[in-house]
UniProtKB/TrEMBL annotation:
GO BP annotation list: glycerol metabolic process; positive regulation of DNA-templated transcription
Signal sequence, renumbered to the chain: none
Protein purpose: Regulates expression of the glpD operon. In the presence of glycerol 3-phosphate (G3P) causes antitermination of transcription of glpD at the inverted repeat of the leader region to enhance its transcription. Binds and stabilizes glpD leader mRNA.
Keywords carried by this UniProt record: Glycerol metabolism, RNA-binding, Transcription, Transcription regulation
A GO molecular function held by the record: RNA binding
InterPro entries (alphabetical): Aldolase_TIM, GlpP
Identification of the protein by name: Glycerol uptake operon antiterminator regulatory protein
Lineage, top ranks: Bacteria, Bacillati, Bacillota, Bacilli, Bacillales
A UniProt-annotated Pfam family: G3P_antiterm
């Protein structure tokens, strides 16, 4: 994957805008389980790959059965989760697994790095994405590509994250989607 922006759909008012964009990947952050299948099907019809944040789907538990549902029934192209076990399930199905990591303090970071090294997700999403040293450190300690997310508020935040080694930036700010 070349460096890019992943538009994050958190407000359904922006769904059509994402579908009309040049972005190949869209992230569904907060959705309802009852809407997912149709939304993903519609996005696929517009040649979009859909990554779903399993932990934030209302009405779905991000366990093995929930992951199985997202992959087999909803046809998600990738799954995002803060749970290492959920990403382990995703990897069994050979679907893209993104482990979302919160860099709250040194203890949390060390704990999450151990999970990353054990689970070996395809990508690690680091939040907040505006901490350049952490983006670099996570990539160096795991060898796994990093996505910067959270608190990305400006074009400069996007540029900084990409310059600091992030492969992509995820943002729900529609103004920043047009940067790439």
């Amino acid at each position: 994957m070349e460096k890019s922006i992943f538009p994050v759909l958190k407000d359904m008012r922006h769904f059509e805008k994402i579908l009309k964009s040049q972005h190949e990947i869209v992230v569904f952050l907060e959705t309802r389980v009852s809407q997912l299948k149709d939304l993903v099907k519609y996005a696929h019809q517009h040649s979009k790959k859909v990554f779903i944040h399993a932990d934030l789907v209302k009405g779905l538990k991000a366990d093995e059965y929930g992951i199985e549902f997202l992959i087999h029934n909803v046809k998600a192209d990738g799954i995002i989760s803060t749970r290492g076990k959920a990403i382990s399930f995703v990897k069994k199905y050979q679907v893209i697994g993104i482990l979302r990591l919160f860099a709250l303090d040194s203890h949390a970071l060390d704990h999450n790095l151990k999970i990353c090294n054990r689970v070996q997700p395809d990508y690690i999403e680091v939040l907040p994405g505006v901490v350049p040293k952490i983006i670099t450190e996570v990539h160096e300690k795991t060898g796994i590509p990093v996505i910067a997310g959270g608190l990305i508020r400006s074009e400069q935040d996007v540029i900084n994250a990409l310059e600091d080694g992030a492969k992509a930036v995820s943002t729900s700010n529609p103004e920043l989607w047009k940067l790439m």
